[in-house]
Amino acid sequence: MSTNTSSKGPSSYTTSIGDPKMDKDHYPWIIWYLWKVRNDKLFIGIDRDPLELIRYVQGECQAWFSEK
C-alpha cells in the first residue's frame, strides 16, 4: 500500500493578499462591530438595531479609508 505524500511545504500554500490600498472590504468591520454589539448586549444590556449597525459600520469604514 502506498501513500501519496506531497513535497510541498507550508510556504507553498500562502496566498497573495494583493494591493492593500485596494482592500476596502467591509466584512472585517462588520464582524468587529457585531462583536462589540454582542458584548454590549451581554454585559451592559444595550440592544441595537441591526440595520442601524450596518449603516454605522459603512460610515466608519469609509471614514477610515478616506483618512488612510
Low-confidence stretches: 2-16
Helix residue percentage: 40-55%
Rg estimate, integer Å: 20 Å
The total count of strands amounts to 0
* Biggest beta sheet attributes: none
Global morphology:
elongated
Helices, by number, come to 2
- Terminal-residue CA separation: 57 Å
SSE-based structural type: mainly alpha
Q: Which series of helices and strands comes N to C?
A: HH
Description:
This protein has helices spanning 27-44, 50-67. By secondary structure, it is mainly alpha-helical. Helix 1 (27-44) crosses helix 2. Mean pLDDT is 75; it is low at 2-16. Residues 1-17 have a biased composition (Polar residues).
Write the topology of this structure:
Elements (H helix, E strand, L loop, with lengths): L26 H18 L5 H18 L1
Which properties best describe this structure?
elongated, single chain, 68 residues, 2 helices, disordered N terminus
Short description:
Residues 1-17 have a biased composition (Polar residues). Helix content is 53%, strand content 0%. By secondary structure, the chain is mostly helical.
